[in-house]
Each structure stands twice: as structure tokens, then as C-alpha cells.
Specification:
By secondary structure, the chain is an alpha/beta fold. About 40% of the residues lie in helices and about 15% in strands. It has 16 helices and 16 strands. A 7-stranded mixed β-sheet has the order 2-10-9-6-5-3-4, sandwiched between helices. Strands 13-14-16 form a 3-stranded antiparallel β-sheet. Helix 1 packs antiparallel against helix 8, helix 2 crosses helix 8 and helix 9 runs parallel beside helix 14. The chain starts with about 25 loop residues before the first strand and ends with a helix. Bound molecules: pyridoxal-5'-phosphate (PLP). The site of pyridoxal-5'-phosphate has 14 residues, from helix 3 and helix 4.
Amino acid sequence: MTNDSGSHAVRELAISGGSPAFSEHQYVGRPNLPRRHTLHDALDEIFDRQWLTNAGPMVNRFEERLADMLGVEHCIAMTNGTVALEIAIRAAGLTGEVIVPSFTFIATAHALQWQEVTPVFCDIEPTTHSIDPARIESLITPRTTGIVGVHLWGNPCDVTAIQEIADRHGLRVIYDAAHAFSNTHQQRPIGGFGDAEVFSFHATKFFNTLEGGAVTTDDADLAERVRLMKNFGFTYYDQVEHVGTNGKMNEMSAAVGLAGLDSLDDVIARNRANYLAYRDNLADIPGVRLFELDENERNNHQYVVIEVDRERIGLTRDEILVALHAENVIARRYFYPGCHRMEPYRSYFPNAGLLLPWTTEIAEKVLCLPTGTSISLESVGTICAVIGDIVDQADALQRLDIDTDAMQVPQYGALKLEGIRLQ
Ligand SMILES: Cc1ncc(COP(=O)(O)O)c(C=O)c1O
């Protein structure tokens, strides 16, 4: 913006008393709903058939479509990603200790701990934010049975290096692919790497089944165990041959998933356009680095992630976050402070952080910015301009002594509710 004298007019930031850049909250990821009429037909089918759950035709169709799309032999739809992880971990026979990144959603660690398998936290690689294969081997003990990698932000782990380590030590590999649905690695779909991969189709994911998830694998025995475990171990209607739980997906969720698959490419195109607009608009802002994804692979672009450099900007990530929230830009600091600094892990392993320097550093730097189908290209431009203004006005903001604790608790509750509100 230029004023009458032709010089750059300084916009007063909302945190300094100006008007917010947006009148409504801009969220990291509002739910995507499938086209109404597609879903109506499917719901009519369910109502007519009155088959609501227990391996119904919708779930079977959903599993077949996913297996086909992901190029895997077996896909087992689940009630959510966390139960899918728990079952995959158990079905793969993981016990004792399992090596896992700390920089992930807490469910990855909890899925192990829930079954009394000890998560051994491994540091990440600073450019990919994913588990660093070079650090895995030093964490292997006689009790280690596996590795759980996380394709963070949809960016595949170094699956070749991880598999090589696993093969050498006789370990099993499970991938938490909650972020990576429909993505590829070396043109091969995520879903067929390791012993099994696990997806989440939670309402906040770009592709959702309200709640839901899936386990995919090419291992027939593993698939069979997962199928048994997700249905109480039943082999026949009154015969139980295995320990199990209830991990089944219901017919309504599968119908939402099938309808959602029809608009998947449109959603990805919108996400990608936003990502590219962020990339262009953020390029010249000093101290802000976009987490870039490999252009040679298919990406769902559901997360736009930046790292902010405290030294260069003169503000902490949390101060920037508070300034953004004041503008109604509800950016989020994902996976802060790292699983190892949350309970019960903080008490169990009080010194874990000593081996996790990159996790600590990246968790202090990362911000996820609003994207998804509810965020227009114009909004992306405004958000980037706001970030530029914050960086430009860092000196003045330093003097405000921003209270970063104030935003944490109350905002979180509100975000959780807003994030899953259907429109
Ligand atoms: C990395 C990661 N793992 C696991 C999960 C758990 O999935 P769900 O919420 O479907 O249980 C999520 C998402 O919520 C996630 O982001």
C-alpha cells in the first residue's frame, strides 16, 4: 500500500490497536464435505438396506477403492486413525521398545504406550522434520522390535534407509501416514511401504470420513490379523479365535468417504493453489522459511508449514502467533512441545530431550498457516502481507511485551470446537 507521497504506508497491526485484517477467523483446516447430492444417494441406499455397520457393502466398496487407488493388496477401514495404529502395532507383533519420532501428534506415541510398548523417541532431520535414519541405530537395544515412522506434513520418510536398518536388525516397520493420504514417494503411492501404513480420516484431515482411518498392507497374514482384531477376534458369528477390540468403520462414514473420493482432486487443486500462493508471497520475507514439498511427487498439500527464525526476526514464534491471532489468522504451532515433553513421557523419560536437539528446535519454530477450501487466494495474499507487516514491525512489537501464555489455553478449546463445526 502506498500513501500520497508515494512511500509505503505502515498498516497498524491489530495487536498494536489497529483493526484485524480479517473480520472472521481463518482456520488451519476447516472440514471438507463431499457434494451433498452424491452423499444423499448413498444415504438413501443405507436407509433402504438398513445395514449400518459390521462389514457392510459401503465399507467393502470403500476398502476396495482405497486398495485400488493406493496400489496395495489389503485395506482395512477403521473407526479412526488412533485405533488403526494400535491394531497395526499389535498385529505386527511390536512389543518391548519401538523407535518413533517425538515430533508428531501425540496419538503416534500413545498408540504404543496404550499397549505397554515403550516409545523410544528418535530425533528428526531438520530439513524434512521426519525421523532421522542416521540416529535410529544407536537407539536399538535387545528389546527393540520395530520402528514407527511418520510421514510428517505428507512428506514421505526416508523409507529406503529405514527399511535397510529394519532388515539388518530384524525389526518391523509401521508408518503413520495420517498426513500422507494420496501422496507418492518415487511415484509410488504411500500405503505400500513398511509392513503396514496407517491413515487417519478425521474431520480435520483434507479427506475425511467424519471419524475414520485405515490400515494398508501387502502382507496377507498381517491383514488377516488386523481384520480379526478390529472385530473382537470373531472368525464366525459366535466364534472368537483372537484377542480383539472394536475398530470397525460404519456404513455412514464409508459413504462420506466414497463421496469424498469423487472430489479429492478438486480439494487437492485448491490446496495446491494456496500452497503456491504462499510460496510466492512468503519468498521475500526475511526469517520466514516455507516447508517445501517435492514437486516431482503427488502431494495433498493439506498443511502449509513455515519455520520462523527468532534471531533474524527478533520475535519468538509464539509472539508472532499471538500477533496473527489478533488479526483473526488462527495459525497453529503443530506438535509443540514434542511428545517427550507431554505426560506420561515427560515423567517416564525426563532426560529424553538431551537426544532430541532438532525436535526441540523445530518445535519452537513451526507454524501451520490457514489453508484448505475455505481459504481463498486473496486471503492467502492478505495473510502473507500480515506476516510481512509483523516482521517489518518487529522492533515495535518487542516493546509491547506480548503475553504468549494468555493465548494458549482459552484459544485451544475454541479452536477444537470451531475446527469440527460443520457449515
Ligand atoms: C500424525 C497423526 N497420527 C495419528 C493421528 C490420529 O488419527 P485420528 O484422529 O483419526 O485418531 C493424527 C490425527 O489426528 C495425526 O495427525
